Amino acid sequence: MHLHFDPNRCYSCKTCQLICSYHHTGSFWPEKSSIEAYRNQQNGYVKWSVDNTCDGCSGESEVLCVKHCVYGALTIGAKQPQPEGHGKKLTAETDTGGSCLAGKILRVDLTENKIWTEDSLFYAQKTLGGRGINSMIMVNEIPAGTRWSDPQNLLCFGAGLLNGTMAPGACRVDISSISVFSGGKGSANVGGFFGPEMKYAGYDNIIISGKAPKPVYLYIRDDVVEIRDAEGLWGQTVFSSEAWLRETLGDPQVKTALIGPSGENRVRGSAVMIDGSRAAGGSGVGCVMGDKNLKAIAVRGTGKVGLADPARFMKAIDKCSAQCAREPNVVPMRKSLTNFYSDPDFEGWERIMVVRNGQDEYWEKEKRIELMNQQTGVPSMRKGMRACYLCPTGCSSYMEIDDGRFQGTRGEGFWVNTIMGHAARFDLSDPEAVVHAWLLTNEMGLDTDYVSSGLAWIFECYENGYITKDDTGGVELNWGDGDALVAMIKKLAYRQGIGDLLADGMLEAAKTIGHNSEYLLAHMKGQPSIEPFRVPKGWGLAVATSPICGRHLRGSTQGSHRFGPRPRPGKFGATEYEGQPEGVYWQARTKELEDNMGICNYVGTWSGGNYLTPGNFAELISSALGIEVTEKELMDHYACVGRNLEKAFNTLFTDLERKDDLPPERFRKEPVKSGPNKGFIADEEKYHTMLTEFYQLWEWDAESGLQTRDGLERLGLKNVADKLAAQGKLVQKKA
Ligand code: SF4
Ligand code: SF4
Ligand code: SF4
């Protein structure tokens, strides 16, 4: 038998590699696969090969790699010679390992140059994994009064519980730390290949403490963990850092989490970039990494991830696969979610676009068409699609600009956030400029939302005459000017001129700029935000109450009928207030579970009724971890533990209160000016009504929003309740 591989159809999800290892070993062990798959995320180069350890899936009822390649890149052809398997011993290894947990947390103290491990089971039993473990460690260990730049602050990487298994879309890793904006809980969630590689190396979480005296990077290859000098790496952009590490380590399969010039320069809105192409953007986690003098983590794992009950788990996988195959959104998403926006009448245009830094929430149709038309717009620059590890949706665009002033620009990434942020917010409909600015933002290692919201704000300050050309180094900040945006991104990343002021935080910059600039800055609890509040109310409530401040993935209900779960919890009426708290409460809990398992919520509950559900999660967790959980326990206990840990961290480390859970003042004062939603506003009284209901659903005090002893003790978080009580920030009983 010969496997025929079509590189043009391959999304580089590596599912074929993993299922082959399962065939050979009964566990998930890429190193023991007959298949090797590799993609260079920067230039699109793809390599796929099968060696002579392939036995044609002897003993199986189907050819597994072909069956599980949902993109149709593998077919069966005539027999041909295959390369040697380099001495692999496949059939002798059948120990499943007993659990999907790697079992260890890697601890690294950069000040003391110390490395050690501890068991992860205790934390997994309490929180499942991923962000849950990060949050619990932060609440338990970070001393009161610690600020983001103190050595006692922790930078925590949490691979999801199901990372490394065959669970669809189980690739996400959580990066948590003290937020550089709010001083409370910070977290950013990202896909790619890094999280599963952590698991194959043997670690569920990596916790970094202290500060290195000079720039370093962390090298991990299974049990070998070394803090290495980053000379030669420091100062490089994201793309060249990624290439440097692969080349220096002599391993194209190494997975990386690193910062660009922006993080090195402690620009507050810096991201940690995964595999050189995907950003963990929120909360300034890249700034914290730079402040710790940690340029990168390079990880390579050659071990396996096991299962508690392989047969039951694979049955659950078959069910998940069948559901995803029935999902009508799958096919369009594989051609990019953003393609929906090629239709200028797509309802998303009327729901989530904030224009000219919040002056309006309606973008004219001719601009939508100029940006997104298939012939000359953004879609014409899309040269291929990519998937994160094991993802059946493959929503990521690989872009190249062939001509014009940005010729030669290439890389992965164009999302709905790009349209919301780098386009509508700047009134910028020039497709090349938007794509170039977005990829430049990634290359600098900046958080895209920080750039979109922060720089759009400085454009409006310029429009109002609060700053002039003298302040911007001669750059005219006019709406729709892509070159001005590009110039400002570089200034920000390298702290040049006014970029130095903006790098220390937009809220701080507003204090220097004065006038009513602070009012014009859209931020939640200090973090600049690109989100809408006046039109989609469930979306707005989730953003306003997000524990990580001003981001939509912590409970936003979809603004479109096409997406989201079916039946939809609460009442669907994207622009109404009624019924939204219930929907946000449901979506926030499923997101909590997804982040703890490491499953992308585009494959989970956010994208369509036939994607994965909490019922699927219960079956996957029970069979993979070996701890029996029901859907109800997941939703009413585990999801609530995670959210309450973050809420408690915010209460312990900040003075945030109910008023901080309201949309930014501008959105409560200025109605939408034009379009079908003209006159819409974030009505303060109605937002208060939603807040009260929302707090009660979580068992928090209806008035203050503080947590209650009853609620926390029901979740087994008595120690957290005691900490809050010691600060006088706990309500005894459910209000
Ligand atoms: S699309 Fe995924 S499963 Fe198919 S050949 Fe490529 S890497 Fe393998
Ligand atoms: S046919 Fe079976 S053994 Fe051969 S590469 Fe595919 S999954 Fe592996
Ligand atoms: S849906 Fe998109 S972002 Fe999510 S895992 Fe798949 S490719 Fe990555």
From TrEMBL:
It holds the Pfam family AFOR_C. InterPro entries: 4Fe4S_Fe-S-bd, Ald_Fedxn_OxRdtase_dom2, Ald_Fedxn_OxRdtase_dom3, Ald_Fedxn_OxRdtase_N, Ald_Fedxn_OxRdtase_N_sf, OxRdtase_Ald_Fedxn_C, Tungsten_al_ferr_oxy-like_C, W-dependent_AOR. Its cofactor is tungstopterin; [4Fe-4S] cluster. Residues 1-31 form the 4Fe-4S ferredoxin-type domain. It comes from the Bacteria. Residues 553-576 are annotated as: Disordered. One of its GO terms (molecular function) is electron transfer activity. Keywords: 4Fe-4S, Iron, Iron-sulfur, Metal-binding, Oxidoreductase. The keyword Oxidoreductase applies. The keyword Transferase does not apply. Belongs to the AOR/FOR family. This is Aldehyde:ferredoxin oxidoreductase. It comes from Desulforhopalus singaporensis.
